[in-house]
Amino acid sequence: MDLSKYIDHSILKPNHTLKGLEEQVEKCKELGVYGVCINPFWVKRARALAGKSLKVCCAVSFPFGLDTKEQKVKQSLKALEDGADELDIVMNISAFKSGLLGYVAEELKALSRHTEGYTRKVIIETAYLTTDEIKRALELVIDAGMEFVKTSTGYAPEGAKEEDVELLVKLSKGQIKVKASGGIKTKEQAQRFLKIGAERIGTSHTFEILK
């Protein structure tokens, strides 16, 4: 299995520099990594550096998902205008936990309508959700027509867990793909998540995993 083809390399820390971005993008190209996941400010620069082989993914409303629906749509459209190939969008977890499921559903549908034709991954932040809430969140993401559901931002108390990924894969029934992310630091972890059905891995430990 060529792990590199499944990895979205995260460059999302608030203190990374332009030099660091340039070095990591170049390394990802050398290793044949699928894509880099970055904050909106760096999309144009990353696009210029990435070339044709490396996908550029923009994190939207990262890491808490608490921007308004309108702000998320504008941020997504600007990222695509700047050259992003894919979007990793954080669901409004606070609204979801408050029972405002209608708002969350409409937000996801609005984002889906405005970004049709691109790969969208919705981060539901499984660490904050019960099993029943994970099921409901998955239903909302599928109903909105998104391409991926993603476990974590990496900023919650826990990241991807095998039981959560297994649950998402089982319940998705082929309707949506699963991205495992958060706390994935070793080759063995990455391989295990792919074996149980994840189709993309999000990690900032790419170079250690692929060494």
From TrEMBL:
InterPro entries: Aldolase_TIM, DeoC, DeoC/FbaB/LacD_aldolase, DeoC_typeI
Parts forming coiled coils: none
Cellular component terms (Gene Ontology): cytoplasm
Pfam families recorded: DeoC
Compartments, record wording: Cytoplasm
Alphabetical UniProt keywords: Cytoplasm, Lyase, Schiff base
Pathway: Carbohydrate degradation; 2-deoxy-D-ribose 1-phosphate degradation; D-glyceraldehyde 3-phosphate and acetaldehyde from 2-deoxy-alpha-D-ribose 1-phosphate: step 2/2
Enzyme class: lyase
Primary localization class, coarse: cytoplasm
Catalytic residues (positions): 88 (proton donor/acceptor), 150 (schiff-base intermediate with acetaldehyde), 179 (proton donor/acceptor)
Molecular function GO labels: deoxyribose-phosphate aldolase activity
Similarity comment: Belongs to the DeoC/FbaB aldolase family. DeoC type 1 subfamily.
Protein name: Deoxyribose-phosphate aldolase
Record organism: Hydrogenobacter hydrogenophilus
Lineage start: Bacteria, Pseudomonadati, Aquificota, Aquificia, Aquificales
